[in-house]
Amino acid sequence: MSSEETYDFFAPEAVWNSDSFLHRVRAQSPVYWSPQFHGWVLTRYADVLAASRERRLVSPPGTGWLDRLPAELKPRFQPARDALRLWAGLSSEQDHLDFQRALKKYFTPAQVDRLRPRVQRFTDELLEAARTPGELEVVGELARPLSASVIGELLGLPVADRELLLRWSTDLQSFFQHADLESLHRGQRSLLEMQDYMRPLVDERRRAPREDLVSVLVSQEEGFFAREPEAVVANCVTLLFSGHETTSRLISSGLLLLLENPEQQALLRDRPELMPSAIEEMLRCAGPTVAMIRVSREPVELAGQRFSAGESFVLVYKAANRDPEVFAEPDRFDITRQPNRHLAFGMGPFACLGTALTRMEAEVCFQTLLRRLPGLRPAFETPDWKPLPPLNRSLRSLRVAVPPRA
Ligand code: HEM
To answer: Would you say residue 38 lies in a domain?
Structure first.
């Protein structure tokens, strides 16, 4: 460690000015022992990349916050802990591989292409529904419902029930952020409600498979999903958790970047072929997953230091993505940036499985917004952020002025 400085990752500065805060941490203490996380915080691109590829580091099961509750409270949250233990099969390496194998069967390029017209239809319908008053509230009227509709499609939910996903998704966040007891209770209630909802739907897919992801999960004849009776139902919740809020935040913060950088918006309108690279730059600058935890299952060498088994590491993707050693002018939003090897989806054995779907969804959404709303302007003085310590915030709303119908 190169400095005596201590850092409070939950402080207002770390939430509201996280980029400059993280520049400071990276420059002064790139491998920083944090008592708040009981782990080593890694902020340099090279170290985060090496840690995410390191097979001796594993992703801990999703029960993190609940495991740290005082002993007398733990039994109250046993139902949630039982479900979270099954998320992504993270309790064992083999289960995790089974989980990934099953999901990869579904998330093929052909499948993502098959979903494209539906994503287009959802986007068009949402914009039609919201256009009348001359204003669009992007978070509530587009980003969240669009992303929920796509997850609903994967899970095979009837369209009319997709509102439920929005509530469940909000409540589930409590398990993975600094939450009070009341939010944890709400999280558990929604988790169990979603599982109860999914159970008959999952049974139906067992009897009569369709083209959705649930049908792929129930068709696994061996391994994790075949062995654990609750695994399919529990992992429907994982998919909502992993895929909803993330994609929704990418759409709203990506659009905010275009509003704050009108010359980049103009460039994208002039050169629509830049859309894929604009989305990569949105992921780099405003990637919704700030950091992930890893634990060493064996001694390991990282960033030139040796660590024993059982140590925790916080891989701060958000800091890696703005490391000046890798990205020239890292705080500049540049939709032509090449190469752009950001880590917004993670990397290595725990990398995101929804990358192709996310990229397609963002592409359809931004193409449609730019095409249908030519004079896209902010309808706010300052962005309406909600703090999400540690190190994060998300847009509560994003109001844009919509030109009158042509
Ligand atoms: C902007 C959108 C998204 C972002 C930024 C994102 C980010 C990530 C990141 C950083 C990880 C790796 C976590 C780690 O290092 O441990 C991850 C894992 C995962 N993501 Fe995504 N994700 C997005 C969308 C989605 C979508 C739409 C889905 C599917 C519907 C999805 C499914 C998953 C799954 C299943 C995992 C666990 C992979 C594993 O453990 O093997 N993600 N995501």
So the answer is: yes
User: Which stretches in the chain have pLDDT values below 50?
Assistant: 1-2, 406
Of 9, 57, 129, 79, nearest to 350 by C-alpha is 57
Cα 209 from chain centroid (whole Å): 28
What separation in Å is there between the alpha carbon of 124 and the centre of ligand 1? Answer: 26
b/e per residue 123-149 (b: at least 16 CB within 10 A): beebbeebbeeeebbbbbbbbbbbbbb
pTM of the model: 0.96
Q: Which residues contact 149 (CB under 8 A, 6 or more apart)?
A: 122, 159, 162
If you count DSSP H runs as helices and E runs as strands, how many of each does the chain have, helices first? 18, 12
Tokens of 213: 């992801």
Q: Is residue 7 part of a domain?
A: no
Which numbered atom of ligand 1 lies nearest the CA of 100? Answer: 41
Domain harbouring 374, CATH code:
1.10.630.10
CA of 106 from ligand 1 middle (Å) equals 15
Residue 247, exposed/middle/buried by CB under 10 A (0-12, 13-18, 19+)?
A: buried
Domain assignment present for residue 1? The answer is no
The order of strands in the sheet holding 57-58 is 31-34, 39-42, 312-316, 291-296, 57-58
- How far is the centre of ligand 1, averaged over its atoms, from the C-alpha of 247 (Å)? 10
Beta carbons of 151 and 166 less than 8 angstroms apart: no
Query: Is 216 part of any domain?
Result: yes
Tell me, what's the pLDDT at 66? Answer: 85
Q: What is the pLDDT of residues 25-43, one digit of tens each?
A: 999 999 999 999 999 999 9
Ligand 1 neighbours, Cβ below 6 Å, are 52, 59, 88, 100, 103, 154, 239, 242-243, 246-247, 250, 287-289, 292, 344-346, 350-354, 357-358
Round to whole Å and give the CA distance between 366 and 368: 5
Dist. CA 243 → ligand 1 center (Å): 7
